Amino acid sequence: MATSTRGDALFVLDPLRLLNPSADSSYVMITEALRRGYRPYAVELAGLSLRHNEVYARATPVRLAAPRAANERPPLVAAGDPEIRAVGSFRVVVMRKDPPVDADFIIATWWLDRARNETLVVNEPAGLRDLSEKLAILEFPQLIPRTYLLRHAADLRDALRELGGRMILKPVYGFGGRGVVIAREDDPNLSTLFELATRDGEGWTIAQAFVPEAKDGDKRILLVDGEPIGAVLRVPAVGELRNNFHMGGRPELTELTPRDRQICARVGPFLRDRGQFFVGLDILGGYLTEINVTSPTGMQEVNRLRGLEGDETMEARFWAALERKLDS
Question: What is the reported pLDDT for 67?
Answer without folding.
Answer: 82
